[in-house]
Design brief:
single chain; 336 residues; alpha/beta; TIM Barrel; two-stranded antiparallel ribbon; 11 helices; 14 strands; 18% strand; globular
């Protein structure tokens, strides 16, 4: 056994330790968010191409043996996968997984929240790009604003905390709502997280001019509320820099992938719904874990392949710099 396998941790050649795994359970989505996928023409994977819940649980077991203790389920829209609570239950039973979370557009949450909670889900991120129904429809190309709020209220009633609301800002579309989101964070116990617009969707029209940098959001919020935002976790292990208003009311997060890349302390890798390991959202290479699982490879063989792939993890992405190449897959196909 080589040195890297003996350590029983996932480490890349830059010394970063990976303990966070994002797993996409489906590429399908009932929204068509303009920063994620085109309005028409998406071709979905056949069910047989998706990892089964048993296969996902097997990979979680292997990754947990390498020190991964945080799992996030994503899509597409993960709640489009039938009976997702059964997968949550399988993962929650793994004693080495300390944190199990879900990222969702919220559409199906009102119907599924109770089963997910009973299965062991305790954290949820919900996409909410606007607090205006008409503008929400413009961003998502779907008239589902009220349905998403039903989902938010359902998880709030169950006591799931924290409830994080993810907001992708696009200049000229929803950046005028920054003050409203600041006020929402102070009125409710939601954590508002602003995610910078990234060039990952097909036909998304991305340009650097449409990116609203986090420092601009902070300045706007402070001007509106009249109180400073104070860092409570800055450039830590998580992708989001966390702030709270100086009076202690209202938490705001910033994922500044474009203006302030956090690649030097990235602790995440991801598995696509068809079983490919990607060491970066913007990776141009993938490692096929599904073929190993279905080809009868042992846990040791799969472990060795994972360790090797993570060791070769990219130093960082090159967004808005020379040499940047968009991945062939859209965000929904990779896993959000």
């Amino acid at each position: 056994m080589n040195r890297k396998t003996e350590t029983k941790i996932l480490k890349d050649s830059f010394g970063r330790v990976v303990n966070n795994l994002r797993i996409s359970v489906t590429d399908r989505c009932n929204f068509r968010c303009r920063y994620c996928m085109p309005e028409e023409g998406m071709v979905w994977l056949d069910k047989s191409e998706l990892l089964s819940y048993e296969e996902i649980a097997s990979l979680v077991h292997i990754f947990a043996g390498l020190g991964v203790n945080k799992i996030r389920l994503t899509g597409g829209e993960p709640l489009m996968r039938k009976d997702l609570y059964l997968l949550v239950e399988k993962i929650a039973r793994n004693a080495r997984i300390q944190d199990l979370a879900l990222t969702t557009n919220g559409f199906f949450l009102a119907d599924q929240a109770l089963n997910l909670y009973k299965a062991g889900l305790r954290r949820v991120n919900i996409s909410l790009d606007s607090l205006d129904a008409a503008k929400f429809k413009l961003m998502t190309r779907r008239d589902y604003y009220n349905k998403v709020w039903e989902g938010i209220e359902a998880v709030e009633t169950l006591g799931i905390r924290p409830i994080k609301l993810n907001v992708v800002l696009i200049r000229g579309i929803n950046d005028d709502e920054i003050p409203k989101f600041a006020q929402l964070a102070r009125l409710k116990s939601y954590v508002i997280r602003f995610i910078e617009f990234m060039p990952i969707g097909s036909d998304d029209g991305w340009t650097i001019e449409k990116v609203v940098p986090s420092n601009e959001v902070i300045k706007t919020m402070e001007g509106h509320i009249g109180k400073k935002l104070v860092p409570i976790e800055y450039h830590g292990a998580q992708p989001a820099d966390r702030y709270r208003f100086e009076d202690g009311v209202g938490e705001i997060g910033f994922i500044s992938s474009v203006s302030e890349p956090f690649c030097d302390h990235c602790n995440r890798v991801r598995i696509t719904s068809d079983g490919k390991l990607r060491t970066c959202l913007f990776s141009l290479a993938e490692t096929d874990l599904k073929s190993l699982l279905r080809g009868g490879a042992s846990d040791d063989e799969i472990t060795a392949r994972i360790v090797d792939a993570v060791w070769k993890k990219e130093e960082g992405h090159l967004i808005n710099r020379p040499g940047f190449v968009r991945p062939e897959r859209t965000m929904s196909q990779i896993g959000g």
